[in-house]
């Protein structure tokens, strides 16, 4: 497989001819190469997006015509579902069922949801206190948007950035993570087939240098980034040159609270799925579990038994329940946290090692459950982004909000209880952008997504995404008396 850049409606190699390799995480073997965009490619893509922003073919396109393009794109995603799902699985590692039902299906739904918004982006008339004056508000596109996506759900997250940006009339440059570029290359081709005019949707594949060049470029008006906090902070610094607008979703360390009255079997099943979806490579994964001390041993034992019984394997194998981690580098990072947990005194109940045997060439890590974890341990404080499940006991429910809020993150949280008062009280007290009660942490196109504290700036999805991709302009008209 060879991925090329897509600039101004044309497929091309990088100006300097550079390429990079993407690997199959299930085997460790090369899967394909992609063009490695350099500074000249970034300049060309930004210039194409800037020109398209002023071209009447896009700038003057009626809202209902934009809506039809997005709806057509959703149809094309569904028509290509089998190919996209297999490509996502090969490049990222997620089980094929997840690729089909979450990644591909979610991408199509985001395009359809925001297709509906194209004809509903409204302004308002303001009752200003100046006599004989009409004041009204227009919502206009922000401009050229750099959309920088992560490696854990490359197709779906590309869709949830592309859809609102295009619905609002912006032009975009999509830059996928270098570990998982292939479905983004295919998506750019589908945008072309759907009929988006040249320059409206551009694709640059490449490494961190490509992203930095986009962030610093003076003709980029907005950056939307999903990824690590370290890179997010770098983006904030890099965007200062022209004070471009920035939306950041920077991960989390989601607490999952299991109340004394919870259905333990349901909580075990829910936490297992919520922690291990995509092998734990999910920003909202349940990654620290607070369980009433009188039920902690029961919960930990059942969680460990269920985790140990999961079948690891390549994502294309229908029997696989847990796929590989995305890269050897990331596997080694996860393993370093497991070793740190053991060194700090956490009790390893199951897992804690790389899978061997027929899986030894891939990047597989056995699901790992820790008991006897305390709040100060690294496995309870830092984002691991892997199949590691720390269980912490609590004695007093009044301490839960304080402990749940005791990290720099605030993306998501989970509550398991039969008591509505407990659910509402903790949902109000926990500082997180989304709180899931008795369910999995799966976002929806219609609901806001984003975090408190170091989990980011701004919100994606729902009407909040329209705010993120539009500028508000006030128009004042003095209407003199005849």
UniProtKB/TrEMBL annotation:
<dbReference type="InterPro" id="IPR016160">
    <property type="entry name" value="Ald_DH_CS_CYS"/>
</dbReference>
<dbReference type="InterPro" id="IPR016162">
    <property type="entry name" value="Ald_DH_N"/>
</dbReference>
<dbReference type="Pfam" id="PF00171">
    <property type="entry name" value="Aldedh"/>
</dbReference>
<keyword id="KW-0560">Oxidoreductase</keyword>
<dbReference type="InterPro" id="IPR029510">
    <property type="entry name" value="Ald_DH_CS_GLU"/>
</dbReference>
<protein>
    <submittedName>
        <fullName>Aldehyde dehydrogenase family protein</fullName>
    </submittedName>
</protein>
<feature type="domain" description="Aldehyde dehydrogenase">
    <location>
        <begin position="11"/>
        <end position="474"/>
    </location>
</feature>
<feature type="active site">
    <location>
        <position position="249"/>
    </location>
</feature>
<dbReference type="InterPro" id="IPR015590">
    <property type="entry name" value="Aldehyde_DH_dom"/>
</dbReference>
<comment type="similarity">
    <text>Belongs to the aldehyde dehydrogenase family.</text>
</comment>
<dbReference type="InterPro" id="IPR016163">
    <property type="entry name" value="Ald_DH_C"/>
</dbReference>
<dbReference type="InterPro" id="IPR016161">
    <property type="entry name" value="Ald_DH/histidinol_DH"/>
</dbReference>
